[in-house]
Design a protein that fits this description.
This protein is an alpha/beta fold. The protein has two domains: 2-229, Spore Coat Polysaccharide Biosynthesis Protein SpsA, Chain A, CATH 3.90.550; 231-314. 49% of the residues lie in helices and 12% in strands. The protein contains eleven helices and eight strands. The chain has helices at 16-22, 46-52, 67-80, 100-108, 129-146, 162-167, 177-186, 211-229, 231-259, 267-314, 346-353, and strands at 2-9, 32-40, 57-61, 85-88, 114-118, 158-161, 191-195, 321-323. The chain has an eight-stranded mixed beta sheet, sandwiched between helices. Helix 2 (46-52) links the parallel strand 2 (32-40) and strand 3. Helix 5 runs parallel beside helix 7 (177-186), helix 5 (129-146) runs parallel beside helix 8 (211-229) and helix 8 (211-229) crosses helix 9 (231-259). The structure holds guanosine-5'-diphosphate and magnesium ion (MG). Residues 8-10, 12, 38, 40, 64, 66-67, 70, 90-92, 94, 156, 205-208 line the site of guanosine-5'-diphosphate (GDP).
């Protein structure tokens, strides 16, 4: 059994050493524990710091593509390097590496395919009341869309088994945290959560430079993801609201026309009602179209999952990959289908690359 711990990094030379200092080299239930960083176009010494700290694998993106893209590239590389379980933690030392055994425990026990570390955000001192409220609201929406019980949906401290990782296909640009939970809830992935510890804050958030950007980006992400996965519900609700307003406006006209017998002076209500009714019809049509598209998306996702399994079987090499610290371990995936990529089956791999 191989565990790979992946860390998305964007200019983390200051805090990466602290993260690595607490990462385990042995975890019960695994024969090997390897470390991987995703360097997302860092302009500081993140790579050198990672090598000096003994990181085994590096996925080095040429320029900055954002956390969601980095996370997906990391998962892909971990699978190709033969990971049976993948843990994701952050490069700012927010999470306590000593809780990794706790995080993987439900997976090892066969009770879960994906485990999300729960920070119990109400108890974190540097989280403002607004941030806690928004975090809770966002988590509630994600739970509704995913039919899971995850309390802390924006937590970046997570474990995935191979099956769960194979099924993840993040399309959001900004955050992977919410979308992966919704996908898991809708696919053959059992999601669990465990309480984990956090370290004192080391620096300001890179993802959210200000409170306003936190509110804006999270609200937009939540709305977009929810409407991507539940278009019928979102647009039909909006259509119902606008449709009811149209009915009220029409009822007003009808009242004056029939009861008061002065319809001529209330043509505006008639027109407004018609405009609103039209808007409701357009919203309803968007809901139906969205629903058809989301069925297509499910089919595409299933195809993608099978393509990925074939890739892993063939031993396609990870992209943007560099071995890390000098012991060469990084070049020799030892278990799983990814082993083919670096165990001498070069002709096969070359063919696959064509
Ligand atoms: N790949 C990638 N990772 C990023 C980027 N920005 C931040 N990160 C990483 O995402 C993680 C969380 O970032 P952080 O600023 O602590 O955000 P917060 O804790 O969610 O407020 C850290 O490991 C960062 O290095 C980015 O542009 N690309
Ligand atoms: Mg952080």
């Amino acid at each position: 059994m191989k565990l790979i711990i992946q860390i998305p990094c964007f200019n983390e030379e200051q805090t990466l050493p602290l993260v690595l200092a607490d990462l385990p080299r042995r975890v019960d239930g695994f024969d090997t524990v390897e470390w991987l960083i995703i360097d997302d176009g860092s302009t500081d010494a993140t790579i050198e710091v990672a090598r000096a700290g003994g990181v085994d694998h590096i996925v080095r993106l040429t320029n900055n593509k954002g956390l969601a893209a980095g996370f997906q590239a990391g998962l892909d590389a971990c699978l190709k390097l033969g990971a049976d379980v993948i843990v994701n933690t952050d490069g700012d030392n927010q999470y306590d590496g000593k809780d990794i055994p706790k995080l993987v425990e439900p997976i090892l026990a066969g009770k879960a395919d994906m485990v999300v570390g729960n920070r119990e955000v109400e108890t974190i001192e540097h989280f403002s009341p607004l941030k806690v409220t928004l975090q809770r609201l966002g988590s509630w929406v994600v739970r509704q869309a995913s039919s899971t019980e995850v309390p802390d949906t924006t937590s970046g401290f997570r474990a995935y088994n191979r099956e769960a990782a194979i099924q993840m296909a993040v399309v959001s640009k900004f955050t992977y945290t919410l979308e992966t939970i919704i996908q898991a809830g809708k696919q053959l992935v059992a999601v669990d959560h465990v309480a984990i510890r956090t370290n004192p804050k080391t620096r300001e958030s890179r993802l959210f430079p200000s409170m306003w950007s936190y509110v804006r980006r999270n609200s937009v992400s939540i709305f977009r993801i929810y409407s991507q996965y539940e278009p019928l519900r979102v647009f039909m609700t909006a259509a119902a609201v606008v449709g009811i307003i149209a009915m009220i406006v029409w009822a007003r006209f009808a009242y004056f026309y029939i009861v008061e017998d002065e319809g001529a002076g209330h043509v505006q209500s008639l027109i407004l009602g018609a405009v609103l009714f039209n808007a409701a019809m357009v919203l309803a049509a968007l809901g139906i179209m969205g629903d058809l598209m989301s069925a297509q998306r499910t089919m595409i996702q299933r195809t993608f999952e099978r393509v990925r399994r074939i890739e892993l079987q063939l031993g396609v090499a990870p992209s943007h990959y560099e071995p890390g610290a000098g012991d060469g371990k990084g070049q020799k995936p030892t278990t799983g289908a990814g082993a083919g990529a670096a165990t001498g089956k070069t002709e096969e791999r070359d063919v696959v690359r064509l």
